Amino acid sequence: MNKFAGWLLITISFLIVTTNLSKADSRQLLNSFRDWDAFVLKTDTGQTVCYMISLPKAKTPSSLRHGNPFVTVTHKPSLEIRNEFNFIAGYGFQKGSAVKMVIDKTAKANLFTEQDGAWAYDAKQDDTIVASLKRGNSLILNARSGRGNATSYRFSLSGFTAAHNAITNACR
Question: What structural domains does the chain harbor?
Answer without folding.
Answer: 25-170 (2.60.40.1880)
